[in-house]
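Everyone, describe these structure tokens:
***
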Amino acid sequence: MVDVAVRGILGIQILGLLFSLIMLYFTFLHYKRKEYPVETFLFWIVLWIGFIFMVIFPTSMDFVIKDVLKFGRRLDFFIIGGFIFLIALVYYNYVTVKSIRIKVEKVIRKIALENAKKKDRNEKK
């Protein structure tokens, strides 16, 4: 009879594998729609394939996690790694939004100045 803990791990592995395969598919769809440059597409593909590898072979990282980084459990490593990844994504989003905001403000100023000049010309006539 299969142990309850083993069944739980297999269920989690199946869910993780399905999740990463779905995300691979969505990444491919966005790339085909030209919403991603090649570099972004490759980044996400490598990330999802790495996730699949870790889901299928969870003990493969034990050397790095336990011996090199000195984490007691794999879960600690993944939680801290997840937080670091999310913080990096939030920072990237912040920088991107800030850059877009500056560009939009420049365009709005340019349009406002052009409209003011047109209005000035129309009033002079």
